[in-house]
Amino acid sequence: MNLNSMVDTALTGTPIDRADALAVLAADDAEVMSIVAAAGRVRRHFFGNTVLLNYLVNLKSGMCPEDCSYCSQALGSKAEILKYTWLTPEQVSEAVRAGVERGASTVCLVASGRGPSEREVGKVADYIEGIHAEHPQVTICACLGFVDEQKAARLAEAGAARYNHNLNTSESSYADICSTHTYDDRARTVQASRAGGLSPCSGLIAGMGESDEQLVDVAFGLRELAAESVPVNFLLPFEGTPLATHTELTPQRCLKILAMVRLVNPDAEVRAAAGREYHLRSLQPLVLEICNSIFLGDYLTSEGQAGAADLAMIADAGFEILGKHPDEARAGVGTDTGTDTAEVRIRARGAGTELPANA
Q1: pLDDT confidence bin for 324, thresholds 50/70/90
Q2: How much is the pTM?
Q3: Domains of the chain, with CATH numbers?
């Protein structure tokens, strides 16, 4: 494994080849720090020492008709999560304000379900217009399930800049995690979001029993789709879901996966997403050497670490929050937006919200 050669390739914006990507995943754990350092050279070349903060707002939770086996909101899931219909505009505004005040420059509006109706797209468009009226500088990412080009265009017209729809896993392993839709269905939505004028955000979930080859397949699949933002999730084994017993990830394995994704997608925003606290444990700050983006505070149906701990981790590691002066970022340390750092749980109320009145 020639890390210097991989870095030289990636610094040109060119992905490393499949053999090198597989070598990164197969490397001995003793080589992890060298791999992190190599990926870090690429990360700093394209993104310097800045960290983009994303904040999730869970507009509608649970009751999804799809049967994705990793998901606590899926059909048949017995996970103990909050289930509620659409938040009110006032609840959305309050949640967004909490994230923005703590340094988030991207707000991700997420709703469970196969995909939005025309009426629901209009509802989200109204949310987006309201957010921009209050926070004109904020980037808005929508994540509503399957959409076509026309629905994507409606969201773009309202002011959304990005659309998230993860591939999650490789084409060859997709049938192992879901039977109600296909890998191609997801890829088409990523393509439709771009055609509709939105920046495509698409990533993966690691730790679902996939092979190294399948992880590399999905990393290259994301590259082929030209995903501009690539969230890397690590499976949270929710009790009550079919994948509840999948706990094979280690901190070293997670770092190698992140590094592989960075070297395959060198100039993309790579985000350490759900599961980083649970699986990285004491090595969690090292994700900042590879990833230029994280979520602040909670996830969709699970608690992240406290937002104050996220801000402190960034400051202590010598990174800066994108769009925020270092003194302002440090001033935010001590403001709680998540759970107690002493315990990272796999159940929670739902990102960006208190218990909604319509739950």
Answers
A1: low
A2: 0.90
A3: 3-331 (3.20.20.70)
